[in-house]
Amino acid sequence: MKKNWVTGILIGLGILIPIVALLVLFLRRQAEKTFTYDAARAASGRISDLYKANPAPTQKEIDDVLGSVSRVMLDKDRKPVDLWGTPFRIRHEVKDRERTVLVSSAGPDRRFDTGDDITFGTISPANR
User: Fold this and answer.
1) Contact of 71 with 35, CB cutoff 8 Å
2) Which CATH architecture has domain 2-125?
3) pLDDT for 9-40, tens place per residue?
4) Which residues contact 115 (CB under 8 A, 6 or more apart)?
5) Is 95 helix (H, G, I), strand (E, B) or coil?
6) H-helix or E-strand containing 73?
7) For the chain, what are the domain ranges?
8) Digit-coded pLDDT (tens) for 45-72
9) Exposed (0-12), middle (13-18) or buried (19+): which is 67, by Cβ within 10 Å?
10) How far is the C-alpha of 43 from the C-alpha of 103, rounded, in Å?
11) How far apart are CA 36 and CA 120, in angstroms?
């Protein structure tokens, strides 16, 4: 009788442990995406402000602004990168009376223009 009880617990743990591991992995991926989205959102606003003050900032000025965002990490060369070590992609466009700044992370696969990219955009009035 005691062996059946112990066997039942071991079988239950054998089923439960992989389920818990998958749940932890899923929650970790969600946290990584949220962290990176928050970084892109903060960076987008600050870079938009940079373009308002200076319509033609240098790459160093953009990197400095990106590096000042608390959730943006820096690589070994002190360049701003996402959680997976890939540089952010910045797109700036002025059309009609609107300025759009898009900050994108390539996501976990480290390739842009795939389904796991994380992008945040800021639209503001353009100074002409």
Assistant:
1) yes
2) 2-Layer Sandwich (3.30)
3) 877 778 888 888 888 888 888 888 888 888 88
4) none
5) strand
6) strand 73-74
7) 2-125
8) 888 888 888 888 998 898 888 888 867 7
9) middle
10) 7
11) 10
Q: Which residue type sits at 6?
A: V
- Structure token pair of residue 56: 């033609």
Whether 121 contacts 98, CB under 8 Å: no
The DSSP call for residue 115 is T
Please state the pTM of the whole predicted model. 0.69
H helices of the chain, where? 2-53, 59-68
Structure tokens of 38? 């928050």
| Closest listed residue to residue 91, CA positions, set 51, 61, 128, 37 | 51
Specify the residue for token string 């938009």. 48
